[in-house]
Each structure stands twice: as C-alpha cells, then as structure tokens.
Design a protein that fits this description.
Strand content: 5-15%
Distance between the termini: 82 Å
Largest sheet: 5 strands, mixed
Structural class: alpha/beta
Shape: globular
Number of helices: 21
Helix content: 55-70%
Number of domains: 2
Number of strands: 5
Amino acid sequence: MNNFKNLLKNITKNKFGILISIIVLIGIWLRCLVYSFNRSLWMDEAALANNLILPHSILNNMEYQQAAPPIFKLISLFNIHLLGNNEYALRLFPLICGILAIPLFWLIVKQIFNSKIAQTATITLFSINYLLIYYSSEFKQYSSDVLCALILIYTALKLNIYNTQRKNLILLSILYASVFWLSHTSLFVLAGIFLVNFYELISEFKQKNKSQIKNYTVNIITTYLPSAFSFILYWFLHLNTISNSDFMHNYWSDYFINNTANINFIMSNTIKMLFYPNICYLTIFGICILGVITLYKTNLRNAQILTLPVLILLCASYLEIYPLGYRLVLFTIPLILIYFCSILNTKNKYMLIVAIIIFIIGVPRYFTYYPLIISQKNMYLREELRTIYEYLEQRIEPNDIIFTANDVYQQDKYYRPKFKFKNNIIQTRKGSKTPFEKMEKGKRYRVIFNIYWIEEKRKRLPELVKWLSQNTRIISQYVYYENYVFYVEKL
C-alpha cells in the first residue's frame, strides 16, 4: 500500500513528464495508425520498389527517375527478404525512423528551451505534423532524412569536439563519414556543424592560444577527415550522376530560388505544406524570423547549429544544386518548428502573452483539424491500384480487358505478378499516350481511373464519363476513395 502511495506521489510530482509522454505516445500512435492503413503503393513508391528487384548493385544509379541512398536500399532489401515483398515490409524502416525521431526531437528541444510552454508546443507540433506522419509510412527516404538530421543535431548540441574524449571523437567521425550514405540531405546538416566547429577553431587562432590551437586542429581533423574521404568516394560512385540528372533538374525547376516567381511559389507551397493544414504561411514565416533572432540572443552556438543547415540549403537552391520541394526538405521541419516556437521561450510575462497570441494566430487549424483526419483513411490514400485489382480479381470475366486511363505503369508492374488475371489483357497508359482508340466494338473493358488529390485529374473525370457515355454502354461502376472502375462495353 505504501509503495502504491509513493508511486502516486511521484506521478503527481512529475505531471509535466506525464504530459510530454502522452504527447510522444500520441505521435507514435498516429504514425502506427497510418502505417496500419496499408495503402497501395503510389507511382514513386512502386518505381523505387521495382528498382530493388532489378539485377544491379546497391551503388548503381536507379532507373525510372528514382534516387535513394545505398544504406536505405540495403535495409529495404533486408526487410523484403525477411518479411516478403509487400507494403508493410517496404514501409517498415520509414516507420521506425518516424517513431525514433519523436523522442530524439524531445531530447533536442529540452537542450534548446528552458520554458515548459515552448517545450510542450514544439514537441506537440512535431508529433502531430501531417507530413511527418504521412512520410513515416511512405516507402521513400524522407523519414530517414529527418531522423539522420536529428541525430547529427543532437550530437552537435551534446558533444563539443574540442572538449570530449578521443574515443568519442572516433565514434563521431564514423557517424559523420557514414551518415550521408543513408541520407543525402544530412550533407547540409553536417556542413553546418562543420562551419560551427571551424568558426570555433578560427576564434582560438584570434586569441593566439598555441596549446589550444594545436588541440583544436587535431580534433577537427580527426572528426572530419574521414568524412571528406567518404564524401569524395560517395560522389564518384553515386551522387554525381544524380546531381547531373537533366530529368531531376527539369522536374524540380520551379523549386530553385533563383528568381522572384520561384520564391513566391516556394513560399506559398513548401512553407504552407510544412505546416499543413495551416495556410497563413506569411504569418508563419514572420514568426520563424522572430524565433531565429531569439535563438541567437539566447545561445549563439546552438543557434548556429540550428540555422546554418537551412542557410546552406538556401544557397544550394539558389545555385540550382538542390530544390526546395516540400518532401525534399522534410528534414527541415524540426528546425523550422524550433524557430517557430522560440518566441515562447521567454520569462517575461508580457512578452509571453504576446507570443502565445501570435502563436495561436499562426496555427489556428492544427488542433481543430487533426482530430478529424486521424480517423479518415482517405486523407492518406492516393493511387489504390492494389485495392482495385483485388476488386477486379473477384469479379472479372475471362474475356474482359483491363484498361487504365491514368499513368499507373509502375504500380501495374509491381502489382500485376501478385494477381491472377488469367487470360485478361491489361492495357496501361504510359506517359501521355491514351489508347482509347484501341477499344474494339463489342468487347468489354474494366476502365480504371484514379484522382489522388490532383485537381487536374479531378477535372478530367467528367470528360472521361462523358466519353464513356457516348462511346460505350456503362454496365456498372465501382468507387474506392476517388479511384474509379467503369465496367463498359464498346459500342
């Protein structure tokens, strides 16, 4: 009985710890919930999955305009061999990264902020951020990008390479030399941390402390020289082909900040998406600027570690080296959230009240929107070709022809071997080619059309229905979250 009373006392004393634990668990639950939806692979995921089964080495560049770090591919291949080639196996590593990122981010937030209000706000926004939840269950490397960035930032905040043991430096050098083989974007974070350490070395030179200069120089060489050799090797083996890809450059051309139009586009898309569903991106941007100023006033070294990666990223975008597409800069979300919540990290009561008011204006839809979406599976679904094929497998007639009105070539290539469409011919649209004219009179077709959030496709649906009504006899129609199957007979 006394033990139980003592336990209750400890719990009541640590109410803040319980609150944070609940927030972290909610974030983990949301990621597991979306993972459990087990949605079909969409085009990019299917293209990456199709690459894994191709007979090429892990270091070779991928087909179908895909790019993924070698360690990410190795882990994905291991999961496939262990659990089978399915969606759960492919998305397991992104889920693990998404889950681990939450407590790690909390450790970072505790080091940055003293205010419990700022700490609570930051970890809450991180836990329920829609993009972080979504990409924790997508077979792409963006979730591991976030985790790798957090690992680097945490080690930089926790360990000063000039005041640590040699064995820690060696472990740190191994981490720094290997991390970009798992995450391309970690290069921006690592470059920012190097600049902070280099600035500290230059400061010692200015003070002309010879013993310290020698110690600092040895430590920085020990930490970063293996990374330099590793990066040179990685560049020639893998990265240079990706950076010189004309397709990648043209596809993401609107996301380079080299002209005013692109800057406006990025501001209204990337920043808005990072704080989805909030649309007040200018307010968010202004709060982040105030937050950065607050960070620099509070702790210069911490502020440099947290801001230099973003500044280097902006320079890379200006030089057309790396685009600022929202999923490509997912790793910046924890940094931006820290900027955003820094205005809450104050002891001045009046400033805190003003900060809370600004904060509420900045995120008015977060807490009204998320309770609605967590139970709505359709918020996460895209191209549900697997579900459509499952439906067709149970109902298709021997002479029916499956016809896709969208470009689902990659998904069809991944899913077709998993289904037994015995004598049925599958005609898939690839690129801009539309084989409607190939429909033969008297034959029956299962016409598949999916929208998955793209407004242009939503506008095309009435045109498709009109064409089918005029040229075919519509026998039946099946709809699954904006994925349509029309059973028609050509007139």
